[in-house]
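Backbone shape codes
____________________
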Amino acid sequence: MKSSVRIAYILSALVLSTAAVLIAAEIGAVQPGGLTVHEWGTFTSVAGEDGAAIDWDVLGGKDDLPGFVHNRGYRCFKFRLTGTVRMETPVLYFYSQRALDAHVRVAFPKGLITEWYPQAEYQVDQQSRTDGSVHRLEPNLNGLDTSMTSLTGGIEWKNVRVEPNTTPALPVESTPSRYYAARTTDAAPVTAGVQHEKFLFYRGVGRFAVPLSARLSADGKVAVANLGSDPVPMVMLFENRGGRLGYRSAGAVSGPVSLDRPSLDGGFPQLREGLENALVAQGLFPKEAQAMVETWRDSWFEEGSRIIYIVPPGAVDAILPLQVDPAPFRTARVFVGRIELITPETKRAVEDAMATNDRTVIDRYGRFLDPILNRMSLEKPAAASQIEQFRANVQSSFAAAACR
């Protein structure tokens, strides 16, 4: 991105940021007894050769959640759920000038909630493939449709106490985790049962269409297409090669657009500022935007190439229907989409690692190794046996490790 374009983009985003803060102040003044609910989260997918989101499995990666987070056993099982999208770390914040009780439910058609906190009622309904009837599954893995095509997951907090102006003790473990960054906001603490937190947290895996497709074209550019009816508010192409960063913004996208690969001379402070301002422009408070970027900075900006975009609000509501009682005066749901691109540079890096038995590739590409290896097998059938042996070695190295 040229410096003049970057400056203009940042200045316009700052104006939008100021407007969002003023709107938030007006809400507090006009509705002193009202409830405001904000949410952010991430949808992660991998682009196939045609640009559409593909099925992918988590071959490797780290368990990045504290042990106190509930999971019904899915934390050790999730690598067998081959959906198209990993729904990562949605958090719901509550703002109110007085204490109140709330009932919150999130549905997840064609998806499964895998982790959550604090205490909640986990739900999963499965449609019969024979007569079309729907029945609720017991809270275990028996009989689960791991393809998730017949599932409707959900999570429900029936008695959430929103407690402004309190400072309850929040759970913490000695092991570092990105989970804690989400607490650095002005949201009211919440209590469910005997568990306290600054938000309601959940995570899952699903099989649904994402709003964008992204593919590498023959001329080396990245072709992006909007697959939905609503404009995508912000689209960015990001690349990290050996710690050198580059990014190129396409702004809002309503139709197809072609992006040149960025030069790797970008700076993280400018990138972070631009992203935070874009999130505020969509409705988040500044501290929420800062918490979101801090939570995911080591993942969004890790080695590789990807499209980073803001999901249209209508798509978020369709993918994750949300019900809150009492009805909020204002609700903002801001989700960032991430589409991982399997580029020639990425495939060469994995090929070199295979040739030299360099296991650091597991840390560099982690959970995306499975779709990378699948693409390599399709493109080079003669090397398929070698690739499968490498895959088996990676899988065995995780056999006795922590769940991912």
